[in-house]
Amino acid sequence: MNNTLAIKNNSEIIKVIESRNAQMRMLSIYVIAFTLLLGIFNIMLGEVLHQKVHHTGGQLAKQVYDLKIDVITERDVIAALAENHGFMLEPHEAPLHFSAFMAEESEVFSYKSVSLKLYHWPSWIAESYLFILLNLILIGVAVWSYRWWCVLFKSKLKPVLSAPQDDLPFTLAKSVEDKIEEPHIDKSNQELKQLPPENALTTLYAIQNNYNHLFALFYCGQPFPHNIDLENHFKLVIVKGFKELSKISVKLLPSGGLAITLENISQTDVDNYMKRLHQIIFQAALVYRGDLSRKDVKVGVCNYRDGADQTIVYQLTKSALVQAKQSAWQHIQRIPFNYTRSIELAEGADTLPDYITKKKFMLFFQPLFDLATGEMLQHEALIRIRHKSLGMLSARQFIPQLTNETAIVQLDQAVVEQVIKLLEAEPSSLTVSINVHPLNWFSRQFWLWFDKKMRSFKGSNKLQFEILEDDFYQHLPKLTSALSAIKAISGTVLIDNVTTSNKIGLLEPYKIVKGLKLSFELIHNIDSNLKQQKAVRQIVLQSTRINLPVYGVGVETQLELNTLKKLGVVAAQGFYFTEPLQEFNQVTSS
């Protein structure tokens, strides 16, 4: 019996030894494979960073060209710009013992007529922190993976070692016992496992749920000089002003404004940081515009927590900035992000029509300006609802919640009635453009009401109605009643959200159509997008053949405006010209 048991134990020991050898072979293969992967990763990372340097150099050459800096006579200016972008005009002397590895690399960057020979440190030196961080992460992942693999391997050996140790040779049993240890169990981990899952994660990662982030946009009433780097200037000042914060971001937007993010702020300190931010921005602006007053610097802020929808955060911040610009004495406004905002709107969809019927709304007016003369041609009516808990809501926010046909009809009826009242109170030679809900273009109820309402209104020829391009072309046969009702009052139609020139020729028989409005997607950043410019050029060409003017919407920068002029767009509207105005007489008297 004892001999049989000894043979069995010896067999198990041999299996343990063979398993150990297999484990060591796997470890060797694992280390070799990981080393190769790590080398490939570093080569690829170096190539990506090199491409980044090449792109930055090209942008610097473009900046020198745009600023019309003479490459020969203004070397000091170019040197400053180069240093700001991480380049040098002349090579620095590398440490003697490392000169073979740390010598600067030189490249020639060109843009049109400008060519710059610049020096820069190798990417593994300039971005050494990135190499170190990513390599440490990869090594940590590899070690963690191997450790768990070992734990799983040992769990398979545990039944083998459960045999009575007295039957094993003492030295061999001891050596196996030494090599295969039970995993260390930490008491703190045991306590952690006893917590609910949410509390466990909070304890493990030290998540502070009461921390907020601030996203801000700011507007200055006076333009800054074109030859300064606004992003770097304000980033430097804001980082110095908030040294206690670990995460700060300052980004220059395509529209020319600045977006600022401050992270990990206590809920109780949000208002204090908001006021400090306005003060710091004002002081930074004074460096380049000494004639500024505090009322010239307006800031909109949205405070939010991790997981917030960034699109909604941006929209709320923009709304806060609009409120600040409209206020004569409150130069900074804050709208907090509410996770239940969309839910509250959806749940309150049944009550939204009450805001219309009870006249709890306002009309704003967006003027359209002639790009040749600067004169105002017409203005677009925009509805806003005063929600009891969510504040001022734009049409884009609340109209999708209106699913009842009656409520949709009442919406446009209320807008038309309000415009009529304003035109009767303040007669104007300018046209008022009204966006009709897509469903109301096919609503017999709305156009019967419209025909009856217009009988007693003398200024009906001043009304213009906007319809989406897709709706007009796709449902043209169904628009007969609507177009007839508008034609009967000598009103006009505007095709909105135009994206293509393919079907413009179909508009020629419809004399009631008096113009085309380009989509915002074609306007935004058109100065730097050749594809958008080509599309607008084709639209203008086709519309000119049938004598239809083309209008731009959402113009935010001088560059966008200049490009539209060159392409033949005759008029435009947007924040570049003015904010939507609250009172009709403000528009007509401008």
From TrEMBL:
Residue span(s) of domain EAL: 345-590
Transmembrane as UniProt keyword: yes
**Entry's SMART domains?**
EAL (SM00052)
Pfam families noted in UniProt: EAL
In its keyword annotation, does this UniProt entry include Transmembrane? Answer: yes
Q: What superkingdom heads the lineage?
A: Bacteria
> Could you tell me the keywords of this UniProt record?
Membrane, Transmembrane, Transmembrane helix
Q: Which InterPro entries match?
A: Cyclic-di-GMP_PDE-like, EAL_dom, EAL_sf
- Bilayer-crossing residues are 27-45, 129-149
- What protein name does the entry list? EAL domain-containing protein
Q: Which organism is it from?
A: Pseudoalteromonas neustonica
